Amino acid sequence: MQSIDWLIILLYLVVTMGVGLHLSRKASKSLEDFFVSGRSLPWWLAGTSMAATTFSIDTPLYICGIVATRGIAGNWEWWSFGISHIVLIYIFSRLWRRSEIVTDAQLIEIRYGGKMAAILRATKAFLFAVPINCIGIGYAMLAMVKAVDALELWQSLGFDPGENLKLWSVVGVSLFVLIYCSFAGLWGVVTTDFFQFFLAIFGAIAVSIIAVNDVGGIRELLPRVQQAKEFDVLSFVPLTRGDGFLGLTWSDAAGITATTFSAYLLVQWWSFRRSDGGGEFIQRLAAAKDEAEAEKSAWCFNILNYIIRTWPWILTALVAIAVYPNLEDPELGYPKLMLDFLPPAMLGLVVASLLAAFMSTVSTSINWGASYLTNDLYLRFLRPQASQRELVFVGQIASVVVTVFGAVAAFLATDVATVFRLVIAIGTGPGLVLILRWFWWRVNAAAELAAMVTGFVIGLITSVFPGFDEIFSDFGLRLAVISSITAIVWIAVMFLTPPESDETLDEFYRRVRPGGIGWRLQQKRTGVEPSQNLAQEFLRIVAATLLLFGSMFAIGGFLLLQSLTGWIALVVAVTGGFWLRQLNKRKILPIPRPGLEE
Fold it and tell me: Considering the chain, what is the average pLDDT of its residues?
């Protein structure tokens, strides 16, 4: 890297810090100002921040790794969450905003009552704030270390870095993030997220265009990619021509097994701990101006995350396979392409974009983890009478604690893709309970606690302990086993323990007004009509899913010269879009507000 590159990076850091500190006054007034921006975020800012949260420096490295080892079809490991994110738009976004919580753990003592609810809230706050959250921060830091190493940043300044120096440089960047994160709260996070996201996506697109052109264009690239691997790198799903339905048959030639693909598509998205939204997303939805803004922010996230971002990463990963077919660590293909193909100034801009992606994710994780420690542990159990100024100060201290634990996790992590799968494994299991608690009165705190702890323990055992790697070498089988054992445990616990009291259930129903037959008793007792028509929302989910995945695969099909796939996907997308438009035109009668007559 040359002086112009370092100047661009320095300019980016100065602007980011200036924006964060400028917004510090907005976050210093109260707990809600610090963690949910005073519930005043517009949809475009909340949605872009959600997308920036999932775009870290580890993401392009992770995708380079999975495309090299499992082909394009390996991306179903994260594509499958698109289904739950569509459900988030039409089912959960308005419910979360209506609940007016600061963290998703706070909902526990609104939905449940008694000592068990308090235990569940404390357990969830700790698990999500410390081990789960800090593991995520750790593998983001690990990816940053790999990028610093591959880009030879220290060497360009004349230093000979050792392992410790590279890692401490990443910890130093995290402390830099901590400064504006702890002063400006969520306002600082989401505002810097907005600029960081578009800088990061610009960098990803620039790398893909330059890299593809330098290898002779897409027509030259695709044959080289396929020759470099023994499996079908370019297949979107594990299907090949055969004697099955529509002339297709299941095959393992695509890089992932049919079992793993089926688990991604049929199990993972609803079984994962974010089946009803997820902590960081809920923080943005709770911070939106109103319910309509929350729904639009969820749509904004889906478009940016799946339609806009997918293919620049995959194209770059394909170039990395062609250019570095024997790379020992395929995750390093992305930064190596940057170093080998980008000219001065452009290299500095793209490095700044990766830095932006890293900082957006880490700042979110710090603020999110601190919200649990402050709102759900300190305020709830230690100092219920704490002043707003004291809570803001505790939130700043909690931000430091989360950052330190994240740095410790970075020292222990070794492989981005492996850690990503660990995060999925320990979070699999409780998803169905998290969905059902909104729509069935019988789900109780004991059932959710059993699901959360069982899924975490089984996921950890099957991922970390020796011997289980061979038994569960097929990741789809591992997810199915975790989900099945967890379901058996929480269902048994639910029916062996008493339901929540009528008072608790009625109060929750009045506040959130969920739809469905699971609240018929509460509807009769309270006289309050539900705010949802679940049958109508289900049709919207199906139509929106066709629109989202059809659009994504139409772009991919045409980019990769798979014209049949592109046209079929385009027809699916247009059909889904037209259907969704018709559904949105249907007149919905206004629902009486609680306490008012029609």
Answer: 84
